[in-house]
């Protein structure tokens, strides 16, 4: 292939979800509301954990990290998507596209590793409760959190570099809501087998390996719960893991479906809807799941609201 055909494009055009103006306006309003709820909900979770000393435990330390990841992930995609819903020329510069791919892919990887770390935390809490505070000490929690952030970031950096080294020729229309890695790789005018293998390998390392660790943790957790004699004890042990298990099922399911088999990937529309799910719905659902299903968080909310109510009454008098 001659050099003229292997030129770098300076910008990409994101085709988005719809070309109908009324649909785009409706989606703008819906996605804006959900994004604001995401930012507010996760910010309140972090603030609540910070203010309530009862929540200064490993589980909520990791939940703080998860909330920060969710907000950052949504912010890497949603604001640009909202702008594109209201303009005709839906362009994104090459550098911005690369940055978006790096942050969204990296934050996604961080979340999967964090969920595996949180599963280990729940395993220790249920299977070895007497030594929980000894095992899950502050130093270990910090190292596990740093490992999550570093591993996801390094994988994303590698994938971003090899993806944007591909010659795109004159292809600049990305049939997606964002610069998602599979959508960008499809634009290349050369054989992308090595890229697809790299995507599959990184998926195994940062998706399937954490998933297997989560699976092993919950096999041990369930086995331990079934050995508990009292019904109340089993119920309490289950509630210890219920919120995390709900998030794990939601988070891992469609990602495994999307990325493990690039050649057998779902349709473009399905890919777009999956991206909307992870960018908009999951960051909204996570704080709700941990608030609604967790007695400690609900208790902390009630305490905080009570304090605010008392402060308001004093100011009023």
Task: Please tell me about this protein's structure.
The chain is mainly α. Helices cover 76% and strands 3% of the residues. It is built from ten helices and three strands, in the order βααβαααβααααα. It has a three-stranded mixed beta sheet with strand order 2-1-3. α1 runs parallel beside α9 and α7 runs antiparallel to α8. It is globular and about 65 Å long. 36% of the residues are buried. The N terminus is likely disordered. Pfam families: 7tm_4. Keywords: Cell membrane, G-protein coupled receptor, Membrane, Olfaction, Receptor, Sensory transduction, Transducer, Transmembrane, Transmembrane helix. GO terms for molecular function: G protein-coupled receptor activity; olfactory receptor activity.
């Amino acid at each position: 292939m001659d050099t003229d055909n292997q030129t770098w494009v300076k910008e990409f055009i994101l085709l988005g979800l719809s070309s109908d103006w009324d649909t785009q306006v409706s989606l703008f309003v819906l996605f804006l509301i959900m994004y604001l709820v995401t930012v507010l909900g996760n910010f309140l979770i972090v603030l609540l954990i910070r203010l309530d000393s009862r929540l200064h435990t490993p589980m909520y330390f990791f939940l703080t990290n998860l909330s920060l990841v969710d907000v950052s992930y949504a912010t890497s995609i949603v604001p640009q998507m909202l702008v594109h819903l209201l303009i005709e020329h839906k362009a994104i510069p090459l550098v911005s596209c690369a940055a978006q791919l790096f942050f969204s892919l990296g934050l996604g990887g961080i979340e999967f590793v964090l969920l595996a770390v949180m599963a280990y935390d729940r395993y220790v809490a249920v299977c070895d409760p007497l030594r929980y505070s000894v095992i899950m000490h502050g130093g270990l929690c910090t190292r596990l959190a740093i490992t999550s952030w570093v591993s996801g970031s390094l994988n994303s950096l590698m994938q971003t570099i090899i993806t944007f080294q591909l010659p795109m020729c004159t292809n600049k229309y990305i049939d997606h809501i964002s610069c998602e890695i599979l959508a960008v790789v499809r634009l290349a005018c050369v054989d992308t087998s090595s890229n697809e293998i790299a995507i599959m390998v990184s998926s195994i390392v940062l998706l399937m390996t954490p998933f297997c660790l989560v699976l092993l943790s919950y096999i041990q957790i369930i086995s331990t719960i079934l050995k508990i004699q009292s019904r109340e004890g089993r119920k309490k042990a289950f509630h210890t893991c219920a919120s995390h298990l709900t998030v794990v099922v939601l988070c891992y399911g469609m990602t495994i479906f999307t990325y493990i088999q690039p050649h057998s990937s779902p349709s473009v529309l399905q890919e777009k809807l999956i991206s909307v799910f992870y960018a908009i719905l999951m960051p909204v659902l996570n704080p709700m799941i941990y608030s609604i299903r967790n007695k400690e968080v609900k208790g902390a909310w009630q305490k905080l609201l009570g304090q605010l109510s008392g402060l308001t009454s004093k100011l009023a008098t």
